[in-house]
Amino acid sequence: MLVKAAMLEYLAEELPQTRKVITWNAAENDYMLAINIDLGFTPAGYDGAWQKVLR
Predict the structure, then answer these.
(1) 23 Cα distance to chain centroid
(2) Helix intervals (H) in the chain
(3) Which residues contact 46 (CB under 8 A, 6 or more apart)?
(4) Among 12, 24, 47, 53, which is most exposed with the fewest C-beta within 10 angstroms?
(5) Is residue 39 a contact partner of residue 1, using CB atoms and an 8 Å limit?
C-alpha cells in the first residue's frame, strides 16, 4: 500500500496534469481491492474470462 500511495503522491506533485490513474485487480483479491478502496479508487468496470479444459 505504501508504494502505491507514494506513486499517487509523486504523480500529483511531479505530473499535475495527470487526471486519471487506472489499476486492475482480480475480483477474488480482497486484500488488494480493500487497499484500492482505501486509496480512493472506485470500480470502473469488470472483465470476465472463460476457459474450457480440452482433454
Answers:
(1) 3
(2) 2-14, 30-38
(3) 27
(4) 53
(5) yes
Q: How far apart are the C-alpha atoms of 36 and 33, rounded to whole Å?
A: 5
Domains of the chain by residue range: 2-38
Cell of 17: 496534469
Segment 3-43, tens digit of pLDDT: 999 999 999 999 999 999 999 998 889 999 999 999 999 99
The pTM for the full model equals: 0.72
Q: Are 21 and 28 in contact (CB under 8 A)?
A: no
- Find all residues with CB under 8 Å of 39, minimum gap 6, and list them: 1, 4, 5, 8
